[in-house]
Automatic annotation (TrEMBL):
GO terms for biological process: respiratory electron transport chain; tricarboxylic acid cycle. Gene3D superfamilies: 3.10.20.30, Alpha-helical ferredoxin (1.10.1060.10). It is an enzyme of class 1 (oxidoreductase). Its cofactor is [4Fe-4S] cluster; [2Fe-2S] cluster; [3Fe-4S] cluster. This is succinate dehydrogenase.
């Protein structure tokens, strides 16, 4: 393995009054992913450690966590790049209700899509994803507004709205309201942390310009 790592994990289970931090001292390969390390800890040291994973190559968005204070997909984050003085601190994504340990409830994000749309749309009998977004929730966790204002629609929803406006020239009224584009503070943390370069911050600004110019219809 070659690298001694102290993995510090924020833990919380239903019924606990407060979270706690557990420490696991392990050996790791600098080139293995943080997710691989978490899986090994779960298999060998603590089977009660709860986390999400699926594809293991940055496509599904399930394994998003806060790694040493930075939102990342852990399946494509190497141990050697994440460790600071041999320490990796793992916490659940911010801005979401914690279900257990590193697992969060992302329904808040999906429920913000306007009622007449879906994250998955059936078009010509084919299911298409939300453009290139992997729906990992990292943009919500990184966004200072989404973490402090529960009513905010959020970066991925507003980026979706920009794409729809570019296609059909229409914007849902909720998007054009205060909880929509006008609550964005243009911090661009969402774009900086996005693992697939979806650039939600830039798309929110472009959508604002379309609204200010009257180039789209609010429906």
């Amino acid at each position: 393995m070659g690298l001694k790592v102290r993995l510090v994990v924020r833990r919380w289970k239903e019924g606990w009054r407060t979270p706690r931090y557990d420490v696991f001292d392990v050996e790791a390969d600098p080139d293995e992913s943080v997710l691989d390390l978490v899986e090994r800890v779960s298999l060998k040291l603590d089977p009660m450690l709860t986390f999400e994973h699926a594809c293991h190559h940055g496509v599904c968005g399930a394994c998003g966590m806060v790694v040493n204070g930075v939102e990342r997909l852990t399946c494509v984050t190497k141990v050697g790049e994440a460790a600071r003085n041999g320490v990796i601190l793992l916490e659940p994504l911010h801005g979401f209700k914690v279900i257990s340990d590193l697992v969060v409830d992302k329904s808040r994000m999906f429920s913000k899509y306007p009622d007449d749309t879906r994250t998955l749309e059936r078009v010509a009998a084919q299911v298409e994803k939300l453009w290139d977004c992997v729906e990992c929730g990292i943009c919500y966790s990184a966004c200072p507004v989404a973490c402090s204002y529960p009513g905010y629609l959020g970066p991925s929803v507003l980026a979706w709205a920009f794409h729809r406006a570019a296609e059909d020239g229409k914007v849902p009224a909720a998007v054009a309201s205060r909880p929509g584009v006008w609550s964005c503070h243009a911090a661009f943390d969402c774009s900086e942390k996005c693992p697939v370069n979806f650039q939600p911050g830039e798309k929110i600004m472009r959508l604002r310009r379309l609204l200010l110019k009257g180039s789209v219809e609010v429906v």
